[in-house]
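Dear Dr. L.,

I hope this message finds you well. Following up on our conversation about the binding site, I have prepared a predicted three-dimensional model of the protein together with glutamine. For your records, I am including the exact sequence and ligand specification that went into the calculation, followed by the structure tokens. Please feel free to forward this to your student if that is useful.
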Amino acid sequence: MSLRTYFSLQEIQNEISQSQLTCTELVAQYLHNIEKKKHLNVFLEVYAEEATAKAKEVDAKIANGTAGRLAGMVIGLKDVLCHKDHGLQGSSKILSQFVSQFNGTAIQRILDEDAIVIGRQSCDEFAMGSSNEKSAFGPVLNEADNSRVPGGSSGASAVAVQADLCLASLGSDTGGSVRQPAAFCGVVGLKPTYSRVSRFGLIAYASSFDCIGPITRSVEDAALLLEIIAGKDDYDSTVSQSTVPQYSNLLNFNKKVKIGYLKESVESEGVSFEIREKLQNTIDKLKTDGHELTPIELPYLDYLLPVYYILTTAEASTNLSRYDGVRYGMRSANTKDLESMYKKTREEGFGKEVKKRIMLGTFVLSASYFDAYYNKAQKVRRLIKDSSVKLFEQYDFLLMPTTPTTAFKIGEMNEDPLAMYLADIFTVHANLAGLPAISLPIGKDSSGLPIGMQLVSNYFEEDSLLAFSKYLMNKN
Ligand code: GLN
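The resulting structure of the complex is given below.
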């Protein structure tokens, strides 16, 4: 069996059109890789038979010229995305045995274009975490170094692409969950503008932040997937009505741009030396190419994480109140009345991190603290948004590392949850402001661990963000 690694759908489709490859062979190859790399703990379920059958169907469609645009794309889904008649549990015990009754909009759209879904990928429970250690199904391992985390919460989805278990994954990003694991695993992770992609069929964590986004090896695939999943949708009233550009046809980039790079990220000791060095190299190269690079300060940097954690826990405490033992998934066997059923189900079903966040969120929403925390945080969020809009009056893109360090060791952050929250310091900004952002692999540190760089653009400018990303990837 050929064990070639494919970097983009285009490569696969070229081979298919030259009769060097079939979807059936491709699926067999990925299934073989999944079996060989089981120890990484990526998939909660692998749809071997179904993917093989679908591959045959797509091969037939290719032969008669009726195949969709994603023919040849083998994809994995983070366990927060509704996929009809398939298990779905947010990697939580509380949703054991739950089966999705419909397809989320993004899923329906990739299926309509003939993507082949190969399985359901683990994540931090209800997408809360930065390490994929908080899944009810145990930690997921980084393929670059099995003693390290892949990042989170879409950690498994990033490892799946890194370890060649599928060509792409769909994840979700509330505070960095697509970009941070993409950085730790050396792949591309895109968080679109808030409201660009329908959230219908995405398990809600913090609804005013949540975004579905692709994890891929190439910028081209990220562009194509976004173009397919984005756009208006009757099932999500928050989704943008604006037309979706054909991102994959707009990837040529040949102008000079103004970039604001985060001064702290090349100067601060809080960012690891090798990351600063790599970022500085990129900055120097871009300057040589005639782009204008200016050091900037990200307004309210010190407030980003506190505001993020106040607002997301508040929203999570509301969203997760639906898991009560009545409507979805598991119900505790040790109950004697209605109240004990609620309590026991939630006590046994939720993991520690999720409980912590529900309690924090309930606290910041409680009558006596609502103004002091929740309302105040909303006001600061508005300031963060407004100051971001101002930045884009001067700059085309913002540039910074995706993460302050490379992948940390499994268990390393157990004693210090705040240190773990710091892993998101550079990613939460885009979610607070609702801006699109992408993490691109820009090399490795001396221990061989991937380093990611983040680019942020103005609202709905994914077209130039992606085009510039492609240009940058070609330089590296
Ligand atoms: N690590 C962040 C959190 O735990 C981000 C999670 C996410 O983007 N889903 O909230």
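In brief: Residues 9-249 form a domain with the Amidase signature (AS) enzymes fold (CATH 3.90.1300.10).

With kind regards,
A. P.
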